[in-house]
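hey can u check if this looks right to u? its 284 residues, i copy pasted from the old doc so theres a chance i mangled smth
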Amino acid sequence: MLRLIPVIILSISILLGALILVSIPLFFPPKMAGEGGAVDNNARIDIELLHGDLDAQREMISELRDQVDALENRIITMEAGATGPAADGGLQIISPTGDNAILDQYAQVVLVADRRALNSGLTVPTSRWLVDTFGPPADNLGDTCASMTNPRLASLLETRQVGPVRVQMLKPALESLQVVLDKVKLADPDLYARINTAGALCVRLVRGSAASVSSHSFGLSLDLNIDGVLDTLGDGRTQLGLTILSDFFNADGWIWGAAFGREDSMHFEVSKDQIEKWIAEGKI
């Protein structure tokens, strides 16, 4: 966050320089010719050109002001934990004020902006498609987690410590997760250290359904959170840290559940596109 401060300082310096440049003609106007204050043709041309330059400089200064304001707003939002509309991505900090306002920024709860446009270019693997592709993960599924009995999938199951989380998933999913979290660690080690999980493999039906199989049943999805604090399902809100993580996951072919009809922003799962690629490569 502090890395933005030099940018603001540079922008303000440019702004001050432009203001000085604009002010010079005000103190040193072009020379007039003739008696009684008359202005000759050359002087008139100089004045018109000067007016044009001043207009262009005013526009430049206005743009610089906008850029400085945007950077200042971003600093305020990221470092002070302010409430109200944020400068980036239309996010809005909605955590309470007072003592709770000093919560780490990654744990701040925000509205998910334009969530239906998330996961652009990726396809969600539906329950029906997963069953048609791999077969049922187990027989006699219910509402509670059961053991995976599907031979094709069970042979690929592994329990592994992947960065800050320990999960049980299919081997290619674990390898992909490792790649994603390695990138997070490199780009934002503070966020990386705050990542926690609410579980991965759970072979069961979707709660409340008599037939639909949960995507967690196939070892291709997991739930993440910040600091072990669970996100509220279906409220259109999420932890700020999860919005940052979603960019890394999307880039490597994972779907973010914040875009679901019933928002589930802790949920990350491998996209249909990536699964089909692994099948073609013989990894599943």
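The CA atoms of residues 185 and 192 lie 5 Å apart.
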